Amino acid sequence: MDAIILQILNGLDKGSAYALIALGLTLIFGTLGVVNFAHGALFMIGAFCAVTMQRLLSLSYEEIDPTRTDFLGNPLKVEVPYVEHWFGPDLGGAIVDWSVPLGILLAIPVMIGLGFAMERGLIKHFYKRPHADQILVTFGLAIVLQEIIKYFFGANPIQTGAPSAFSGSFDFGTLLGFDPNVIIYPYWRMVYFLFSLVIIGGVFAFLQFTTFGMVVRAGMADRETVGLLGIDIDRRFTLMFGLAAAVAGLAGVMYTPILAPNYHMGMDFLVLSFVVVVVGGMGSLPGAVLAGFLLGILQSFASMNEVKSLIPGIDQVIIYLVAIVILLTRPRGLMGRKGVMED
Amino acid sequence: MTKSTLTRRGVIKTGAYAGAGLALPTIFTSRARAFTNAPSGNTVTFGFNVPQTGPYADEGLDELRAQELAVEHLNGMGDGGMLNTFSSKALDGTGILGKQVEYVTGDTQTKSDAARASAKAMIEKDGVVMINGGSSSGVAVAVQGLCQEAGIIFMAGLTHSNDTTGKDRKKNGFRHFFNAYMSGAALAPVLEKAYGTDRRAYHLTADYTWGYTQQESIQASTEAIGWETVNNVLTPVGAGDFSSYIAPVLNSGADVLVLNHYGGDMINSITQAVQFGLRDKQVNGKQFEIVVPLYSELMAEGAGDNIKGVYGSMNWNWQLSDPGTKAFVKSFGEKYGRPPSNSAHTCYVQTLLYADAVARAGSFDPCAVAEALEGFEFDGMGNGPVLYRAEDHQCFKDVLVMKGKENPSTKYDILEIVEVTPVDHVTYPPDHPMFGGAEATLGQCNNGA
């Protein structure tokens, strides 16, 4: 029982990331009809916004400490971050410590801007082309973005820690009457799960309760009629692309303490997120979220020792097996609508 | 207007004669060549095959820096580095046997097939006489096999699996780096002293040759001091998120977690283990501990604060105080502004050792070079006196046990040396069961003739 609860908890944070990426993919597919293979790269760029924020906040000047020496025996140059110089070591240290959440402030404008630039500069020209062309161009774009990040940040993962207030883990087991240390869950992963719920809730509320959202939903259902009513739907869809990019970026920012970001982390998530979208049903937002959490938890179960000793390697293929079963039994996915990508 | 005398038959005949004429010299030279890529003219070319892209690219970059420095020193530029402290004096900074050293580089991408392809290109196209570098045992075993077939010498870079000089040992391949068995032998006494004899260990192991041999070695050496092994779980290379493997650890009754991971995987797994609060827990009435048997400076830099107080082992470290280390750190530090990593050190030393063996043998013939390296004893290259054992082409030298420093003063001294384990404690017979047993042989030397 305790092992099951443990793995459900474990699946939640990975599921949150899948759900957020799949949500953005579905938004773009539903509005613009484009299969965006660069979406994983947007998640990765978001993560590097957190890294950039950390680097910016840790920008330092050198002070020479004559009492100590460096590895060559020269007087040691000590790096003092500017923020510590300006705000004092306590407040300055705290600002550096909180650089991941502060990365959100950087990620929102960067991601929306990047989303606009991508849509207006490149993807716009591919609306009338076949899906295969769109996949190729966005995939190429993803590789370009990856290589740019690698050029500036190197190939190794970059450790970007959570604020020290969130280090350690919460003992769920004692709440439920188990022995201590049986069911533990890191604080930051709880934060990530709650954060993703807020973002998902926010996107749904935006689409459901605002006029803008209503127009977008109408456009998703029947683009032509909305256009005939004199509404500039393209403009709104461009905004949705920016929004989807921001969602992926925020998912990336907050994920950095869970997984040290490297330049190819986006690709790892992209493939799985596509499976999530297909399982959830192409074009269905609730389906994407549901399938995201479901597959995250399933993957977590599959990596349990008990399961792995029965079927070795199952943790690597479980998601694809489930996708095959679901597509065989429900070809439109869990919550797919009729007529999407079927023409 | 003149009538052309060209006929189809005429053209073919002329072409055939011309072709045969052009081919003639190469037929003679290829028959005449004594061994693969025998250098002609006044230069000789080395092939540096390192990961320039992919997850170990930073490791590969540091190897390249060291190799470039080694070539400079061989050609008499710079301050000479370890040539001044090396016990053999066959090299004098005028190249090798009167030939200036040049080099080409290849990208292994940390993939066996890509590494073989780039090594093959360097052998066939650039005519290299020796290949050095790399940062994975899977790659090292693959490239070593290729060099054996092609008839050139392979001077392995960072490879820690027992198999490289164990069941997959080759007559043309040589390893300076230490191996998993040596890590286990060096770590066990330190772990016994720090954590006692009554411990229960849980292993997470990278799912490939290096992970298996390291896990086997550490399990054997810790069980010899009385520890119990609770579980060993194989994790996919590049898994990224290890949380579902880490979460069950505490509940298993284990009080030590051994991470048989390397590079990015190790950075992620140790960070996540710390995030789960494992190191703050008390299990079986003892403080929970983490051990990372194979350390590297670049990994430690990546893992940051999470490695404080964590034990591991290394082939070499720039903080050693012998004259060889000091000379190397000085020339590397002045050229690149940072201390060298242990993968840089092993590639630098391997390049010099190859050059020295050629000079002592008086020939670039790989079989003569191999003979010069076999059983070679030297000093002045860090780690004290070293033996290149003839039976398996493994270097035997002191091994360092390291610990994550509690209060590092710069970003380069995040690890401290807690013990230098003498070479006798890490020596094993060449037919040791972990190294392929009695069946493992080097085979015949191949010079490609």
Automatic annotation (TrEMBL), chain A:
GO terms for cellular component: plasma membrane. InterPro entries: ABC_transp_permease (IPR001851), BCAA_transport_permease (IPR052157). The chain crosses the membrane at residues 16-35, 98-123, 135-153, 190-216, 237-258, 270-298, 310-329. It comes from the Bacteria. It is found in: Cell membrane. GO terms for biological process: amino acid transport. It holds the Pfam family BPD_transp_2. GO terms for molecular function: transmembrane transporter activity. Belongs to the binding-protein-dependent transport system permease family. LivHM subfamily. This is Amino acid/amide ABC transporter membrane protein 1 (HAAT family). It comes from Rhodovulum kholense.
Automatic annotation (TrEMBL), chain B:
It comes from the Bacteria. It holds the Pfam family Peripla_BP_6. Keywords: Amino-acid transport, Signal, Transport. CDD domains: PBP1_SBP-like (cd19987). Residues 43-405 form the Leucine-binding protein domain. InterPro entries: BCAA_transport (IPR051010), Leu-bd (IPR028081), Peripla_BP_I (IPR028082), TAT_signal (IPR006311). Signal peptide: none annotated. One of its GO terms (biological process) is amino acid transport. PANTHER family: LEUCINE-SPECIFIC-BINDING PROTEIN (PTHR30483), PERIPLASMIC BINDING PROTEIN OF ABC TRANSPORTER FOR NATURAL AMINO ACIDS (PTHR30483:SF6). Belongs to the leucine-binding protein family. This is Amino acid/amide ABC transporter substrate-binding protein (HAAT family).
